[in-house]
Amino acid sequence: MEFSAKQIAEFLGGEVVGNHEAKVWTFAKIEEGTTGALSFLSNPKYAPYLYETQSSIVLVNSDFVPEKQINATLVKVPNAYQAIAQLLQLYESMKPKKFGISPLAYISDSAKVGNNVYIGPFAYVGDGAVIGDNTQVHPHATIGDGVKVGTDTIIYPNATIYQGCIVGNRCILHAGSVIGADGFGFAPAEGGYSKIPQIGIVELEDDVEIGANACIDRATMGRTLIHHGVKLDNMVQIGHNVEIGNDTVMSAQCGVAGSAKVGSWSMFGGQCGIAGHIKLGDRLNVGAQSGIPGPEKGDQTLMGYPAIDHRKFARSAVLYKKLPEMYSQLGALQRELDNLKKKIEETK
C-alpha cells in the first residue's frame, strides 16, 4: 500500500517540508533508508544520518531545524517517536487476519468460543474455557480448563495459560509465555521440602502485553494481578501474589519476588530485581541491573544495588573506578604515619 507525504501529514496532523507528493510503501531505519521508505528521527544522536538517508520521507519533531540540505521530504510532527508508532499500528491493522478453527485443534465440548475467532493447528482449549470475539489462538498454544480470554486478544504459538486464569481484552501473549504456573512455594521439612499447593490464579487486565518466555506465577491464594496497560518484555519473571500497577513497563529479565506491590506508570530497565513483600510507589524509574530490597516512594529515579538516587549512584560509580589508586595512596599514608610514630618514639 502506498501513501504520499500529504496523506501522512493529514493523518498525523503534521506539516510537510518538501515534496507533498513524495510516496512511500515501506518502513526503514534512517541509517538504512531506501527509495520509497518512511523513516523517523527522534534521537539527536541519529541526526547525521538525516543528511545522508535515501528514505523518501522522514518524520521529525516540530522544533527540528536542519543544519544543511536534506534530500528527503520531511513531515514535522509534535512527537516523531509517537507518530511512527501510530503509523506502524495503522500498518499492522491493515495486515490480513486469520479466522476459523483448524480441524487439527482440540476444543473441549464445554468450551465457549466467540465470533470471528482463529484457533490454529494443535492448539488446545480446555473444559469450560471461554474465548472472546476476534481473539486469535495460534498453533500449539494451550488454554487450560476454566480459563477466560477476552476479545481481540492474541495468543501466539506455544503460549500457555494454566487453569482458571483470566486474560482481558486486547492483550498480547507472545510465544512461550506462561501464565499461571505454580508460585515458588515450599516448606522446609525433614529430608527435603514440602510443596505448598498454589490454588490461586493470575489475572491480566485489558491491554496487557507479555513478552516471549515470560512467566507469571499463580497466587498461593487469591490472585497475581497485572493491571491494565502493563507491558512486560521477554523473560520477565513475576512471582506469586504480585500486583503490578497500570501502565508499568519492565525490560527483559526483570524479576519480581512474591507478594511485592509495584506502582503505576513505572519503568524498570533490564535485569532489575525486586524483593518480595515490599511496596513501591507510582512513577518510579529504575536503571538496568538495579536491585530494590525494600519499599520505595514514587516519583524517583534509582540505580544500583541497593538502588539509590541515580545522581548519588553516578558519583559513587566515579569513586569506585578510583578505589585501587585510593587504596594505594591510603597504604602510603599509613606507612608514613607509622614512620613518624616510630621517630617520635625514638626521640623520647
List the helices and strands and how they pair.
Layout: E1 3-4, H1 5-12, E2 15-17, E3 23-24, E4 26-27, E5 37-41, H2 47-50, E6 57-61, E7 73-77, H3 80-93, E8 100-101, E9 106-107, E10 112-113, E11 118-119, E12 124-125, E13 130-131, E14 136-137, E15 142-143, E16 148-149, E17 154-155, E18 160-161, E19 166-167, E20 172-173, E21 178-181, E22 186-189, E23 192-195, E24 201-204, E25 209-210, E26 215-217, E27 223-226, E28 231-232, E29 237-238, E30 243-244, E31 249-250, E32 255-256, E33 261-262, E34 267-268, E35 273-274, E36 284-286, E37 291-292, E38 300-303, E39 308-309, H4 310-347
Parallel strand pairs: 4-5, 5-6, 6-7, 8-11, 9-12, 10-13, 11-14, 12-15, 13-16, 14-17, 15-18, 16-19, 17-20, 18-21, 19-24, 20-25, 21-26, 24-27, 25-28, 26-29, 27-30, 28-31, 29-32, 30-33, 31-34, 32-35, 34-36, 35-37, 36-38
Antiparallel strand pairs: 1-3, 2-7, 22-23, 38-39
